């Protein structure tokens, strides 16, 4: 087990880890919050666990890197009924790629996948029953009707689950479309603001150019008058010296 030692890199928020809580095996999770202490040994980490979404706070000695210890602690357990949450946690941990990723999205994806898999398994079991029934030499009406009812119920269940998933996805799509519309409206407002700023800039530039031309002409006019005054002064001086 890879432990942090003094001087090693401290785990950061969003890091994927295995954490050990008394009474449980090493469980995958992410660092949800860091409470820094004076030393590594006194630092505390709030862990958000995959699968159950429980939270707890642990010291570094109870935490180890997920990637470095995946082969040791990240193997699915065979008794899925008893270890359903642990196996689910491993799947979610593998799908968690970035600190910006929403665990709720991963959970919903897993739940939809589980529903479809269970429904398909039920249909598979019914199909197997039908095939076994047809392979028999003797058949009876009651069994045929029973199997037909099972097939119908399985297909209805699959259809119902698919409708629920489609409805959920449609709602998600509606929310995303509303968000996109809001962003497009915001983009339009920003573009209009940029256009207005460019127009204002152009107006100011024109005014500045006009004032520069006016100032230049004024300067030349004053310079011309100064030259006339100088000529007149020289003329008067010459007149006085005669």
TrEMBL record:
Domain PWWP: 13-56
InterPro entries according to UniProt: PWWP_dom
UniProt superkingdom: Eukaryota
Pfam families in alphabetical order: PWWP
CDD domains: PWWP_HRP
SUPFAM superfamilies: Tudor/PWWP/MBT (SSF63748)
Protein name: PWWP domain-containing protein
């Amino acid at each position: 087990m890879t432990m942090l030692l003094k001087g090693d890199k401290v785990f950061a928020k969003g890091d994927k880890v295995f954490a050990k809580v008394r009474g449980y095996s090493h469980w995958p999770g992410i660092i949800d919050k860091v409470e820094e202490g004076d030393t590594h040994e006194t630092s505390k980490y709030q862990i958000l666990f995959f699968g159950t979404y429980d939270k707890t706070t642990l010291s570094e000695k109870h935490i180890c890197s997920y990637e470095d210890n995946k082969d040791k602690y990240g193997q699915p357990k065979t008794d899925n009924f008893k270890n359903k949450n642990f196996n689910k946690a491993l799947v979610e941990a593998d799908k968690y790629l970035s600190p910006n990723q929403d665990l709720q999205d991963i959970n919903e994806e897993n739940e939809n996948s589980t529903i479809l898999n269970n429904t398909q398994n039920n249909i598979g079991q019914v199909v197997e029953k039908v095939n076994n029934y047809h392979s028999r030499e003797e058949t009876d009406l009651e069994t045929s009707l029973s199997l037909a009812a099972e097939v119908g119920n399985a297909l209805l269940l699959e259809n119902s689950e698919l409708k629920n998933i489609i409805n959920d996805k449609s709602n998600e799509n509606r929310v995303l479309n509303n968000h996109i519309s809001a962003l497009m409206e915001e983009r339009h407002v920003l573009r209009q603001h940029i256009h207005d700023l460019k127009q204002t800039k152009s107006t100011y530039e024109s005014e500045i150019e006009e004032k520069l031309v006016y100032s230049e002409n004024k300067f030349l006019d004053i310079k011309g008058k100064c030259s006339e005054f100088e000529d007149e002064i020289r003329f008067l001086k010459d007149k006085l010296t005669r």
